[in-house]
Amino acid sequence: MATENEQMLLANVGRRIRATRVKQSLNLDQLARLTGISAPALSLIETGKRDARLTTVAKIAAALRVPLSTLMDDTPSGSDARTNDAAQGYDLGDYQ
């Protein structure tokens, strides 16, 4: 079962895929033809109900002619939040 963070990640990636597809005036059937991924599978990915492989998301990005990072990155442009988090170090005590 996916954690709440994983569910949020899947939903956000799916939302970005759908928004990009709609912006380009493509329907699910058209994207399915471009990617080789069935329309029902694409629908599940877009709604965050299916955990797509990275290679699948890369196919979708290629078909939509956008960088993979456009679909994956949840950091607002110009944000360095991840860099600041990494600078704080890691607490691996819980993973022993």
TrEMBL record:
Region described as Disordered: spans on this chain: 71-96
Superkingdom field: Bacteria
Q: Which residues cross the membrane?
A: none
Q: Which Pfam families match?
A: HTH_3
Keywords assigned by UniProt, alphabetized: DNA-binding, Plasmid
Q: Which SMART domains does this entry report, sorted A to Z?
A: HTH_XRE
Q: Where is the HTH cro/C1-type domain?
A: 17-71
Database matches in Gene3D superfamilies: lambda repressor-like DNA-binding domains (1.10.260.40)
InterPro entries in alphabetical order: Cro/C1-type_HTH, Lambda_DNA-bd_dom_sf, TransReg_Diox_bact_type
- Name the PANTHER family for this protein: HTH-TYPE TRANSCRIPTIONAL REGULATOR, METHYLPHOSPHONATE SYNTHASE
Q: Write down what this protein is called.
A: Helix-turn-helix domain-containing protein
**What is the species listed in this Swiss-Prot or TrEMBL entry?**
Roseovarius pelagicus
